[in-house]
């Protein structure tokens, strides 16, 4: 529960519904994914290139004996692929019982957001197919990645 200041300046114990997100970067753009969808974050693992049917899939990697496809989010969002460095990470999530690794340039922090501050409007047209909304944290606008939309684009 979060204490809110009402119009009279008094504290009001109105309950504010919050959602937690993991903030990360693809290129210079800040994104978020629902924290409940994140299984783990790992340093990049070796990627085995495969003859994939979709350009978003960079290949597969082995995570504790499980073969996991690696999705290059820079490719999905039409950003130039940056040279790997020590900040690069894999965000491991799952979709329909299949683990998936999102390759990102940097994982920043966990953010708690008042659900009322999340909008479904996305002004960046090239992100629209894979983003389900946005919110502002401080001075930064974050776009919420919808893994279902990404995976559907890959499968179809």
From TrEMBL:
This is Chemotaxis protein CheW. One of its GO terms (cellular component) is cytosol. Residues 18-156 form the CheW-like domain. It holds the Pfam family CheW. It comes from Perspicuibacillus lycopersici. GO terms for biological process: chemotaxis; signal transduction.
């Amino acid at each position: 529960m979060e204490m809110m200041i009402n119009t009279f300046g008094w504290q009001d114990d109105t309950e504010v519904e919050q959602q937690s997100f993991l903030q990360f970067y693809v290129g210079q753009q800040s994104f978020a994914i629902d924290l409940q969808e994140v299984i783990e974050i790992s340093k990049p693992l070796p990627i085995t290139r495969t003859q994939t049917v979709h350009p978003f899939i960079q290949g597969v990697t082995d995570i504790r004996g499980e073969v996991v496809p690696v999705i290059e989010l820079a490719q999905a969002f039409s950003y130039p692929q940056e040279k790997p460095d020590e900040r690069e990470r894999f965000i491991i999530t799952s979709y329909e019982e299949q683990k998936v690794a999102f390759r990102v340039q940097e994982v920043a922090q966990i953010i708690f957001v008042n659900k009322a501050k999340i909008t479904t409007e996305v002004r960046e047209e090239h992100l629209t197919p894979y983003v389900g909304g946005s919110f502002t944290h401080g001075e930064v606008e974050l776009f919420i990645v919808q893994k279902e939309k990404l995976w559907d684009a890959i499968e179809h």
